[in-house]
Design a protein that fits this description.
421 residues; alpha+beta; Rossmann fold; 8-stranded mixed beta sheet; 5-stranded mixed beta sheet; binds histidyl-adenosine monophosphate
């Protein structure tokens, strides 16, 4: 019978790879804690309406990438394509803002988008997602970006670029939209199919179209930064000023509009040249209108998400560096020795000593081979004679030395040896 394989674009993360994942997630937890964040866990399934309203009806995500289905109760549900809308929903649903509007939250988990799979692009992928809610001070924007850069450096990523832009506010954006529409009026025939459609629904998205033809057209399009109001300009200037205080290098990318509709003012992306077309490791921005649009009070927010598959593919470390070998491997020959080994093995594990054994009772040579495969530091050799004489041989696999240990107090003896490692 043929085996059943995973769904296209959905990837297994195998045991050899999970060490890197744990390392990255733990580093994020450690660094985010220093910046005052708390972890939140939200469901991966939400009512479809949440993303329609939150991300925007005319975005690529909502138009064509969501995994939406009707459950047997006839409700429309969607596997979350991102986490911001869910985190804000939880913030509102549990009235978190009533006690204190300021909430600094992060969540780690899978997201789902039905995009065309390619290098660095999956249909199930994972994000570390951060939201700082309740503050519109430009210092918060800079602090959030600083934390992101600090985290990326802590996992030894280099050659990254930070691009920032201001997307203005509902007050100043319409004039820019107007300018873009006028600019594109006589260029319609040269736009790609998607952009032609976007002209009516979401003309700003034309700005960051990746199609070659569109790229050429928009190279001298009006710039959003020339249209933002004085408050938005002032906010943006301050964000830049604070970034400079922390020596965080950045570039202005006036064409960056981001793929989700909730953004206002600061938007940013961290990119790399090493990933080909899917060059964004992380992206985010301010969303000062989103909470109100989701039925809550007028509370601002800003956040970002890091794509974990992309980040992990760039780590300079090898998978093997994260392997955790056992402290001890027990090679046991004969029924009595196997019985003794089985009890000892689990007793040591309960004391926090990573112990493995061979359950096959095969030759000593084959068991030693297995110990080598596990890369165990020590091997305890137990045979019929050792059991009778109440002793065992402990081989230090690194030094190549061997010593005889008494089986009386063997747990304690091994414990002490391992603690000295
Ligand atoms: P986003 O730019 O859509 O933002 O996604 C953030 C990151 O997730 C991307 O930079 C990329 O690394 C990764 N990513 C996105 N799609 C895929 C995919 N199909 N395969 C692999 N990786 C992918 C958001 O999701 C916003 N919710 C971020 C945010 C939080 N803004 C404010 N708060």
């Amino acid at each position: 019978m043929k085996i059943i394989t995973a769904v296209r674009g959905f990837k297994d993360i195998l045991p050899g790879e999970t060490g890197k994942w744990q390392y990255v997630e733990e580093k994020a937890r450690e660094i985010f804690k220093n910046f005052g964040l708390s972890e939140i866990k939200v469901p991966i399934l939400e009512k479809t309406e949440l993303f329609r309203r939150g991300i925007g009806e005319t975005t690529d995500i909502v138009e064509k990438e969501m995994y939406t289905f009707q459950d047997i109760g006839d409700e429309y549900l969607t596997l979350r394509p991102e986490a911001t809308a869910s985190v804000i929903r939880a913030y509102l649903q549990h009235n978190i803002h009533a006690a204190d509007p300021v909430a600094k939250l992060f969540t780690i988990g899978p997201m789902f988008r039905r995009e065309r799979p390619q290098k660095g692009r999956f249909r199930q992928f994972h994000q570390i997602n951060v939201e700082l809610i309740g503050l519109d001070d430009p210092r918060i924007d800079a602090e959030l970006i600083l934390m992101l850069i600090c985290f990326l450096k802590s996992v030894r990523l280099s050659d990254l670029g930070l691009e920032i832009n201001s997307l203005g506010c509902p007050g100043c954006r319409p004039s820019f939209r107007e300018a873009i529409l006028i600019f594109l009026q006589d260029k319609k025939n040269d736009l790609c199919k998607d952009c032609l459609r976007r002209l009516d629904t979401n003309p700003l998205r034309v700005l960051d179209c990746k199609m070659e033809g569109c790229g050429e057209i928009i190279s001298d399009a009006p710039k959003l930064l020339d249209y933002i109001c004085s408050e938005c300009r002032d906010h943006f200037e301050k964000v830049k000023e604070y970034l400079r205080i922390f020596d965080v290098p950045f570039e202005i990318n006036a064409k960056m509009v981001r793929g989700l509709d909730y953004y206002t003012r600061t938007a940013f992306e961290v990119t790399t040249e090493l990933l080909g077309a899917q060059n964004a490791i992380a992206g985010g921005g301010r969303y000062d209108r989103l909470i109100e649009e989701l039925g809550g009070p007028d509370i601002p927010g800003i956040g970002f998400a890091i794509g974990l598959e992309r980040l992990i593919s760039l780590l300079p470390m090898k998978d093997e560096e994260f392997a955790i070998p056992p402290h001890l491997f027990i090679a046991a020959l004969g029924d009595e020795a196997q019985k003794f080994a089985y009890t000892l093995c689990n007793r040591l594990r309960m004391q926090g000593i990573r112990t493995e054994m061979d359950y096959s009772g095969k030759s000593l040579k084959s068991q030693m081979r297995r110990s080598n495969k596990f890369n165990s530091r020590y091997t305890l050799i137990l045979g019929k004679r050792e059991i009778e004489e109440k002793k065992a041989e402990l081989r230090d696999m690194k030094e190549g030395t061997q010593e005889t240990l008494s089986l009386d107090n063997i747990e304690e003896t091994i414990s002490n040896i391992v603690k000295r490692m």
